[in-house]
Inverse folding.
Protein backbone atom coordinates (compact mmCIF):
# COMPACT_ATOMS: atom_id res chain seq x y z
CA UNK A 1 0.00 0.00 0.00
CA UNK A 2 1.43 3.37 -0.99
CA UNK A 3 1.08 6.40 1.22
CA UNK A 4 0.86 8.70 -1.80
CA UNK A 5 -2.48 8.98 -3.52
CA UNK A 6 -3.57 11.02 -6.49
CA UNK A 7 -7.01 12.59 -6.74
CA UNK A 8 -9.19 10.84 -9.31
CA UNK A 9 -11.01 14.13 -9.97
CA UNK A 10 -8.17 16.60 -10.56
CA UNK A 11 -4.98 14.50 -10.27
CA UNK A 12 -4.00 16.64 -7.31
CA UNK A 13 -1.94 15.31 -4.44
CA UNK A 14 -3.95 13.73 -1.64
CA UNK A 15 -3.01 14.05 2.00
CA UNK A 16 -3.51 11.22 4.47
CA UNK A 17 -5.55 12.36 7.46
CA UNK A 18 -6.79 10.67 10.60
CA UNK A 19 -10.13 11.18 12.26
CA UNK A 20 -12.67 9.24 14.26
CA UNK A 21 -16.39 8.61 14.17
CA UNK A 22 -18.68 9.99 16.88
CA UNK A 23 -18.38 6.56 18.53
CA UNK A 24 -14.63 7.06 18.79
CA UNK A 25 -13.63 4.60 16.11
CA UNK A 26 -10.51 5.91 14.44
CA UNK A 27 -9.92 5.72 10.71
CA UNK A 28 -7.77 7.37 8.09
CA UNK A 29 -8.87 9.05 4.89
CA UNK A 30 -7.35 11.02 2.05
CA UNK A 31 -8.17 14.61 1.20
CA UNK A 32 -7.19 16.24 -2.07
CA UNK A 33 -5.01 19.31 -1.46
CA UNK A 34 -6.28 20.87 -4.69
CA UNK A 35 -10.06 20.30 -4.91
CA UNK A 36 -10.86 19.07 -1.40
CA UNK A 37 -12.27 15.74 -2.56
CA UNK A 38 -12.16 13.10 0.19
CA UNK A 39 -11.83 9.37 -0.15
CA UNK A 40 -11.87 6.58 2.38
CA UNK A 41 -10.01 3.37 1.81
CA UNK A 42 -12.28 0.47 0.86
CA UNK A 43 -10.50 -1.73 3.40
CA UNK A 44 -10.99 0.88 6.09
CA UNK A 45 -14.69 1.11 5.27
CA UNK A 46 -14.99 -2.64 5.62
CA UNK A 47 -13.14 -2.52 8.93
CA UNK A 48 -15.50 0.22 10.11
CA UNK A 49 -18.57 -1.75 9.04
CA UNK A 50 -17.17 -4.76 10.87
CA UNK A 51 -16.62 -2.67 13.97
CA UNK A 52 -20.19 -1.38 13.91
CA UNK A 53 -21.51 -4.91 13.59
CA UNK A 54 -19.76 -5.80 16.83
CA UNK A 55 -21.41 -2.86 18.58
CA UNK A 56 -24.75 -4.68 18.65
CA UNK A 57 -26.81 -4.84 21.81
CA UNK A 58 -27.50 -7.82 23.99
CA UNK A 59 -30.38 -8.49 26.30
CA UNK A 60 -29.53 -10.15 29.58
CA UNK A 61 -31.67 -11.24 32.45
CA UNK A 62 -30.91 -10.68 36.13
CA UNK A 63 -31.51 -13.61 38.43
CA UNK A 64 -31.61 -13.75 42.18
CA UNK A 65 -28.44 -14.94 43.78
CA UNK A 66 -28.55 -14.68 47.59
CA UNK A 67 -29.07 -11.01 48.37
CA UNK A 68 -27.49 -9.95 45.10
CA UNK A 69 -28.59 -10.34 41.54
CA UNK A 70 -26.63 -12.31 39.01
CA UNK A 71 -26.22 -11.03 35.48
CA UNK A 72 -26.41 -13.70 32.84
CA UNK A 73 -23.84 -12.97 30.12
CA UNK A 74 -24.97 -14.17 26.68
CA UNK A 75 -22.83 -16.99 25.28
CA UNK A 76 -21.62 -14.93 22.30
CA UNK A 77 -20.06 -12.47 24.73
CA UNK A 78 -18.66 -15.24 26.92
CA UNK A 79 -16.83 -16.49 23.84
CA UNK A 80 -15.79 -13.07 22.59
CA UNK A 81 -14.33 -11.95 25.93
CA UNK A 82 -13.17 -15.36 27.12
CA UNK A 83 -15.21 -15.16 30.32
CA UNK A 84 -14.68 -18.00 32.76
CA UNK A 85 -16.55 -18.92 35.90
CA UNK A 86 -15.24 -16.96 38.92
CA UNK A 87 -13.48 -14.45 36.69
CA UNK A 88 -13.55 -11.04 38.30
CA UNK A 89 -14.74 -8.10 36.26
CA UNK A 90 -15.05 -4.46 37.18
CA UNK A 91 -18.44 -2.72 37.19
CA UNK A 92 -18.30 1.04 36.70
CA UNK A 93 -21.53 3.00 37.32
CA UNK A 94 -21.94 5.62 34.61
CA UNK A 95 -24.56 8.27 33.95
CA UNK A 96 -26.47 6.20 31.39
CA UNK A 97 -25.75 2.69 32.58
CA UNK A 98 -23.18 0.29 33.90
CA UNK A 99 -19.89 -0.35 32.21
CA UNK A 100 -18.28 -3.76 32.54
CA UNK A 101 -14.52 -3.86 32.26
CA UNK A 102 -12.80 -7.17 31.67
ZN1 LIG B 1 -8.75 16.82 -6.42
Amino acid sequence: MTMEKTCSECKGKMKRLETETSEGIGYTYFKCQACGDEIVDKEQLQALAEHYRTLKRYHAKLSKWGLSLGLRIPKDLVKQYHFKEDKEIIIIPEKDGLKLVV
